[in-house]
Specification:
Elements: E1 2-3, H1 7-28, E2 33-39, H2 43-58, E3 62-68, H3 74-86, E4 92-96, H4 103-109, H5 121-128, H6 137-148, E5 156-159, H7 166-175, E6 180-183, H8 190-194, E7 199-202, E8 220-223, E9 227-229, E10 232-234, E11 248-249, H9 256-284
This protein binds nicotinamide-adenine-dinucleotide.
Residues 138, 159-162, 164-166, 183-185, 187, 190, 203-206, 209, 224-227, 256-257, 260 line the site of nicotinamide-adenine-dinucleotide.
């Protein structure tokens, strides 16, 4: 069984991003800048944002962190995002999403060319139309993993249909010629569906929801889940005894996580280039940077 480790894939993405950022700096004379907004002081959110900004800084990308109270009102967050949208020194905006403000509102407030997570409806729509601009980081990272390990996509089952992972991943893989079955909490007899697939990608957010009995012999499994349980990180797949069944599985931790952060870096430099084009277009005429 192959362990589909995230590190080598992340390193490849980071090397490409470093080159792209060097080229950006050479043309513009400045570093790209990622703004990260944290709402509340949950240790997990603070840690995630710190990991992301440290990785950005290691590539020479600037970062600015904005810490807001967990009681922040929606309009206060909106005003901060709008200020950052207008600030030419900020290229990309990341919001560690609070639970009390709907994701769909936050997605609409961020300017599409600074939407480093790729959640704005314009970016989601472009992805759905097969013309991606800023693609959500986790799906982008998973695609890089599948390409790195040369995994066949012709029979793919994705478990989970969230707007962050499952849905955009299904769209992205379909445009890479995968035949995708998308399962979710209302899928009847999930096991019968996953057992048909050569590749199963699980993003449900329930520790160990699927075990070895869900997979066909020699299938590949990407375990996206990150669940904090008994002081440990656990995936959505129970890895016990899985080596007798599957041909390869991504570990938790050390699988999709580092690749997602590397994809975020790639998107930051993409946003920096888009923001530069946007500023130029604003001063020249009203050319849409999303038209190709
Ligand atoms: P979510 O809660 O938004 O969505 C979960 C999805 O799973 C839903 O579509 C739901 O229909 C489906 N689901 C729930 N129970 C199910 C069941 N019993 N059978 C079939 N489907 C079921 O979660 P999300 O944001 O997509 O995240 C999923 C997991 O991936 C979480 O553990 C999250 O922490 C993790 N995640 C990891 C990374 C990473 O970088 N590794 C990035 C994003 C999310």
């Amino acid at each position: 069984m192959v362990i589909l480790a995230g590190e080598p894939v992340a390193q490849r993405l980071l090397d490409e991003t470093q080159k792209a950022h060097d080229a950006f700096q050479k043309t513009t004379g400045r570093a790209a800048c990622l703004a990260a907004i944290i709402v509340g002081d949950s240790p997990a959110s603070v840690l995630y944002v710190r990991k992301k900004t440290e990785k950005a800084n290691s590539l020479g990308i600037e970062s600015r962190v904005f810490e807001l109270s967990s009681l922040v009102r929606p309009y206060e967050l909106k005003i901060l995002i709008e200020t950052l949208n207008e600030d030419p020194a900020i290229d990309a905006i990341l919001v560690q999403r609070p639970t009390h403000i709907p994701d769909r509102d936050i997605s609409l407030w961020i300017a599409p060319h600074k939407d480093v997570d790729g959640f704005h409806p314009l970016n989601a729509g472009n992805l759905a139309l097969g013309n991606p601009c800023v693609t959500p980081c986790t799906p982008l990272g998973i695609l890089a993993m599948l390409e790195h390990y040369k995994i066949n996509l012709s029979s793919t089952c994705i478990v989970g249909r969230s707007p962050l992972v499952g849905k955009p991943l299904a769209t992205l893989l379909t445009s890479h010629n995968a035949t995708v079955t998308l399962c979710h909490s209302k899928t009847q007899n999930l096991k019968a569906v996953t057992q048909q697939a050569d590749l199963v990608i699980v993003a449900v957010g329930h520790a160990h929801l699927l075990d070895r009995s869900f997979f066909k012999q020699d299938a590949y499994v990407i375990d996206v889940g990150i669940n904090h349980k008994n002081g440990k990180l656990q995936g959505d797949v129970n890895h016990d005894g899985i080596e007798d069944v599957v041909a390869g599985i991504s570990p938790v931790p050390g699988g999709v996580g580092p690749v997602t952060i590397a994809a975020l870096m790639k998107n930051t430099v993409l946003c920096a280039n888009l923001s530069t084009q946007f500023l130029r277009a604003q001063t020249a005429s009203d050319i849409s940077i999303f038209d190709e």
